[in-house]
Amino acid sequence: MEITITKLEEINVVELVGDIDANTAPPVQEKVLPLAVSEAKILIDMTNVPYMSSAGLRALLSVHRQATAQEAQLVLVGLSEEIKDTMEITGFLEFFTTCDTQASGLEALKIA
User: Fold this and answer.
1) CA nearest 108: which of 73, 80, 83?
2) Half-sphere exposure of 38 (CA within 13 A, CB side)
């Protein structure tokens, strides 16, 4: 799992590469949770995440809860159809703002 965090203006962009499973979900959560501070804007680019287990879903939910508690904005981009379907079936998708591309995700955060 590769985790790259860059800052574009006031937006933290987190790019994830690789599967998010029981082994990789804890480091993802460890790196992303501290970004969810008061009124932060966070974009998580999952374009290069082919697989996400239930541990990955839990990690994303933790980030969502922290962001909501801090009144931060969180956008997920580049979800594969398989991950999107899993999130929809489990009801997780309704918690997140999602966009197809990083550009559209950045735009959504700038407007909000």
Assistant:
1) 73
2) 0
